[in-house]
Design brief:
elongated, binds nicotinamide-adenine-dinucleotide, 16 strands, alpha/beta, 16 helices, 485 residues, N-(1-d-carboxylethyl)-l-norvaline Dehydrogenase, domain 2, 3 domains, Rossmann fold, five-stranded parallel β-sheet
């Protein structure tokens, strides 16, 4: 991308000059790229607006991914319209309220002051330069990809697509979704007969552009700023890649261009499968270590001092969240089309899915040491969220453990500062309220499922009869009351 003569001419100047040179150089390099790409007028116009951040961006699906993305775009100066079928979310945003714990109302208000609006009216999509889809991709009851949200969104978007618009899918999915599902639905439902720009010669008219760019957010991780997480971008063809990369370079420090939507789709799955498999590995080694009387957390910390070739992963009570427990199965499902069995994914799934049962068994053993049966025991579970310091309980192992303990006759209560109440979800109907963290001696067992930072673990151990710790939250506390599992 860089032009050697420009690089040479900017040497030895002041930092201010360098910054403006850098901007000029970037603009020129895109022009150079545009030249190479032979951009038609409709794409050149969009590119210029994206580069100047004057483009109008529609974000569809204002959940954990779409809302923060909308705020980042608005902060950078883009004119952002959020779309959702959930009228309550739209009403909240229009009133300057937030419905995600870690996003404050003042951030919504600041975005609104910069022009951010939310709507349920998809007709407003036709005004947008780019449309980004951030809708859910869960599994069905039979552990198969449920692409109904992507398909329904594509059907709702199709009639409003306009020539030259860019459509980007961010939802995690198997390689091939953009080309095999999204594009055909957008083309079939498009009343103007527009087609996705095909690979090869650039059309002057009658096309829109399509790319895939996976979301890489790590909820609760405060060690890296969101804008510093590089954004992988793969277009259906080169113009879409360039448009989407330019859009994301407006809000992220770096866009990583890859050669196709399939590569971008697979990149996200590789990242999550890597986590899933490594977590399964340490979960399995944890169970062995418990039998051997070895502290697996101490082992991992010691191994992590190796400056190369080892990345620490930590055991826990089972996988949770919208990504790690789900995404790998998108690939194993797709692999069957190629007569391929993804054995690592299946094995990791088997190990990780057995962890809640291991926790329930550990609670039973801990009660046993107190001459108590599970049947009739009062258990206080600390943490409903699937990981610490977040307000997300999707696929949380706490939900499964509650079920398992109840099946054996235990009375289960919970405390979680992020969930005053837990009602009904896709896979649960609990109707429970968070119990105040007091009189801990009344419980037969306190079970730490989520290691929220706000808990005072020393006090919890001190005041409880017995504590089962699934997260090493009581690290450094010496007490016979603690059962690490
Ligand atoms: N949450 C994460 O940390 C995370 C991280 C990386 C990737 N992802 C991926 O991003 C995607 C979105 O996840 P999320 O966590 O934001 O989901 P979410 O459930 O929090 O939000 C999705 C939003 O889409 C809306 N929606 C559903 N169908 C719609 C439709 N037809 N039209 C308009 N809006 C519709 C829902 O009302 C909801 O507000 C998923 O594919 C997920 O795997 C999520």
């Amino acid at each position: 991308m860089s032009n050697p003569s420009q690089a040479k001419s900017s040497q030895g100047k002041s930092s201010k000059t360098k910054t403006s040179k850098a901007k000029t150089s970037k603009a020129k390099s895109i022009q150079a790229n545009s030249g190479k790409l032979n951009l038609p007028r409709i794409a050149r116009q969009r590119l210029a607006r994206l580069e100047a951040r004057t483009a109008r961006i529609g974000v569809i699906g204002l959940g954990y991914v779409g809302l923060p993305l909308s705020l980042l775009l608005a902060e950078a100066g883009f004119k952002v319209t959020g779309f959702d079928i959930d009228a309550k979310k739209v009403d909240d945003l229009e009133a300057g309220r937030s419905y995600i714990f870690r996003i404050e109302a003042k951030e919504i208000k600041a975005a609104r002051a910069k022009g951010f609006t939310a709507t349920t009216e998809f007709a407003r999509l036709s005004d947008q330069d780019a449309i980004i889809l951030c809708v859910p991709t869960p599994l069905t009851a039979h552990h198969e990809p449920d692409l109904s949200f992507v398909e329904n969104t594509a059907k709702a978007v199709a009639p409003w697509i306009r020539e030259g618009q860019l459509v980007v899918l961010e939802s995690t999915t198997y390689p091939g979704t953009t080309e095999e599902l999204l594009i055909p639905v957008l083309e079939a439902g498009n009343t103007q007969g527009l087609k996705a720009q095909a690979k090869g010669a650039a059309a002057e008219h009658g096309v829109f552009y399509v790319a895939f760019s996976p979301e890489r957010e790590d909820p609760g991780n405060v060690t890296v700023a969101r804008r510093d997480i590089p954004k992988v971008v793969g277009g259906h063809e080169a113009i879409a890649t360039e448009l989407a990369a330019t859009l994301y370079e407006g809000i992220f420090t770096r866009a990583v261009r890859v050669s196709s939507t399939r590569v971008a789709e697979m990149t996200k799955l590789l990242e999550n499968i890597y986590r899933c498999v490594n977590i399964a590995l340490v979960n399995e080694l944890k169970i062995l270590s418990l039998r051997m009387g070895v502290d697996i957390w101490e082992v991992i910390d010691a191994a992590a001092t190796k400056p190369f070739g080892f990345q620490p992963f930590y055991p826990g009570p089972g996988l949770g969240g919208h990504c790690i427990p789900i995404d790998p199965f998108y690939l194993s499902w797709k692999a069957k089309e190629y007569d391929f069995n993804t054995r690592f994914i299946e094995l990791a799934g088997e190990v990780n899915e057995a962890m809640p049962a291991h926790v329930a068994q550990s609670v039973a053993q801990a009660l046993n040491t107190q001459k108590k049966a599970m049947n009739g025991a009062r258990i206080l579970m600390l943490g409903m969220a699937y990981k610490k310091d977040i307000d997300d309980l999707r696929e949380s192992p706490s939900l499964t453990v509650i079920e398992l303990l109840r099946e054996q006759g235990a009375e289960v209560l919970y405390n979680d500062p992020y969930f005053p109440a837990v009602g009904r979800g896709r896979h649960y109907n609990l109707n429970m309220r968070s119990t105040p963290l007091e009189n801990l001696e009344q419980y037969d067992c306190v079970l730490i499922m989520t290691d929220h930072t706000d808990y005072d673990y020393a006090a919890i151990v001190d005041l409880s009869r017995i504590v089962v710790d699934t997260r090493n939250a009581t690290k450094g506390i010496a007490s016979e009351k603690i059962v690490r599992c």
